[in-house]
Amino acid sequence: MDYKAIAQQTAQEVLGYSQDTSGWKVVKISKKVTVSTKTSRKFQGNLYRVEGIIPEPTAKLSDFLHHPGNRISWDKSLKVHNMIHRIDSDTFLCHTITQSFAMGSISPRDFVDLVNIKHYEGNICIISAQSVDFPGYPPSSNYIRGYNHPCGFVCSPLSENPEYSKLVTFVQTEMRGKLSQTIIEKTMPSNLVSFILNAKDGIKAQKTSRRGFHPNTLSSFQKKK
């Protein structure tokens, strides 16, 4: 499987989604986060667009979002998020297991996604992802294997304040199993709003922990010891 070629194609598709301004229907606005949707061209479901403003410069925001080691510390929708294979410095495979949601009516799913980080003019960063087959992580009987059609994050500087970023997230997830599309459509917008709010909280917590760390603390402790 040519993972690099798939990654390039996925990045282009996500870029195309970000430039597509027609046909979106707003389905939820909450706490300055807007969720819009249109029919997916990839499967019998929806493509979701989620927009919010994050108080972080674009470079730091993109690092925060794509770092697998940090993800479960702030993303409450996940219980596992591990990098399982690195292809190059900007392309890798991740294995993800979600939490159950919709009061347990949607059981955990697992995904194997090809993730790519690509930078564009104007300090725009796209972190794209698409589910792929990977021999090291075949489907198991423990979880229903879901499938993410081209999705990802588009991070760009806020024109009026470059210390803030506009984050646009695209999601088109095929849950599989025996779920009705109605349940998914009812629960997805609220979950997507929560994702943006959780990211904001995670960035705030990270800043707080950085402010609380002083390089001289360890040396002072060692002297006392």
UniProtKB/TrEMBL annotation:
Residues 20-208 form the START domain. Pfam families: START. PANTHER family: PROTEIN CBG07384, STAR-RELATED LIPID TRANSFER PROTEIN 6. May be involved in the intracellular transport of sterols or other lipids. May bind cholesterol or other sterols. GO terms for molecular function: lipid binding. This is StAR related lipid transfer domain containing 6. Keywords: Lipid transport, Lipid-binding, Transport. Gene3D superfamilies: 3.30.530.20. It comes from the Eukaryota. One of its GO terms (biological process) is lipid transport. SUPFAM superfamilies: Bet v1-like. The keyword Transmembrane helix does not apply.
